[in-house]
Design goal:
Number of helices: 8
Structural class: alpha+beta
CATH topology: Hypothetical protein yfbM fold
CATH superfamily: YfbM-like super family
Strand content: 15-25%
Largest sheet: 8 strands, mixed
Radius of gyration: 18 Å
Length: 225
């Protein structure tokens, strides 16, 4: 897996990215794009909306382009057997929109760092919810697999746990981790300053993202691309 978008991951060139967005509206993409959005006064309201109508997750992970949402929506409309025989057109689906607050749809792209981060953070913050283990948003494929989500309560716990961590603490754990099972193979190496810098930069981006969700009572959506 490669990237995370916050506000989740995405796969690119044979690797996975995680992207995340915040809010129930963060999106994260691995590309980590977690995306979870929060409407003013209605905690996790947008998460409830997309769980009830999963194609709406495209309104989060591709908020500036509705083409993927419209394609997904067209898959949900079917004709009856008799309608097909008599050549009746498919029913026109109802196009819906989500309303986002100014704090929602913040995006973080964790690139291909997510599995290395996950391995370290499970040790650094063993009692925190696992950010990368979200629940499926229906059966909608948004890259490499389904979008995942974390509710605002879980994000608050994650942010509290990550707030006390430093890059030195993270790297101290990284230097002891068995890197062989980590994705993508060949990226992770011990005693490599460039890789340690890459891991540290993505950790700081994730730390800032989850703190944003906590500050504004937001959840997140995670996309693997």
């Amino acid at each position: 897996m490669g990237a995370i978008t916050c506000g989740t991951g995405s796969y690119s060139s044979g690797t996975t990215r995680l992207e995340c967005r915040s809010g129930f509206s963060p999106t994260c993409r691995h590309e980590c794009r977690p995306t979870i959005t929060d409407k003013a006064g209605r905690i996790d309201a947008n998460i409830a909306e997309i769980l009830a109508d999963p194609p709406l997750v495209w309104r989060v992970v591709e908020s500036d382009d509705e083409s993927s949402y419209l394609r997904e929506l067209s898959k949900t409309t079917t004709r009856s057997f008799l309608a097909k025989i008599f050549g009746k057109a498919k029913p026109v689906p109802t196009v819906r929109h989500l309303s986002f607050s100014e704090h929602e749809l913040r995006f973080v792209d964790l690139d291909k760092s997510w599995d290395g981060l996950n391995a370290c953070l499970k040790i650094c913050a063993p009692h925190a919810p696992n950010f990368f283990d979200g629940e499926d948003v229906g059966k909608v494929e948004v890259g490499y697999g389904r979008a995942l989500y974390q509710r605002s309560e879980a994000m608050a716990g994650i942010a509290a746990a990550y707030a006390g961590l430093t890059t030195d603490m993270l790297l101290s754990v990284y230097r002891t981790v068995d890197l062989r099972p980590l994705y993508p193979r060949g990226l992770w190496r011990h005693n490599d300053p460039e890789i340690e810098s890459y891991l540290s930069e993505n950790f700081l981006a994730l730390q800032a993202f989850v703190q944003h969700t906590r500050d504004h009572s937001l959840g997140a959506v995670i996309q693997f691309t």
